[in-house]
Amino acid sequence: ISKAPSGFFAPVIRPMLKKISRRNTLYVRCITAHYPGVSFMSALKKQRIDLRLTDGDKSMIEEAAAITNQSITQFMLNSAAERAAEVLEQHRRVILNEASWARVMDALSHPPTPNEKLKRAAQRLQDME
């Protein structure tokens, strides 16, 4: 653990590489900094993900992390979080084919006349306001 100029312990990241057949497993141990007023346990992240990757993928990730001035852990976490947000956003969008799109647009352009139940609901809403 290295001592930061302010007297606090700086985080240290120690990657360890273990050769497994033709793949590499990258283990990253993160020691979290301890700051006064913050309990040590609350400062620790409690979840972890282990993965296996090829030599080429590992080299590419290391190079990209170095270019962006991030640790491998920071780079992988940021990249995965960004991609997860994209996937979730795409999943939440409605994707329609031409025929379905035309039906939706037609329904918006020519809404059906409200029935009695809808009229009563609208009246109750107005009364509440």
Structure description:
The protein has 5 helices and 3 strands; from the N terminus they run ββαβαααα. With 129 residues, it is an alpha+beta fold. The protein has one domain (12-110). The N and C termini lie far apart (62 Å). α2 (55-67) packs across α3. The chain has a 3-stranded antiparallel β-sheet. Helices cover 49% and strands 16% of the residues. The chain is elongated. A hairpin with a 2-residue loop joins β1 (12-20) and β2 (23-31). It has helices at 40-43, 55-67, 72-92, 98-109, 116-128; strands spanning 12-20, 23-31, 52-53. It holds the Pfam family TacA1. InterPro entries: Ribbon_hlx_hlx, TacA_1-like. One of its GO terms (biological process) is regulation of DNA-templated transcription. Belongs to the TacA antitoxin family. Keywords: Toxin-antitoxin system.
Summarize the structure.
This protein has 129 residues and is α+β, with helices and mostly antiparallel strands.
Question: How would you describe this structure in keywords?
Answer:
three-stranded antiparallel β-sheet, alpha+beta, 129 residues
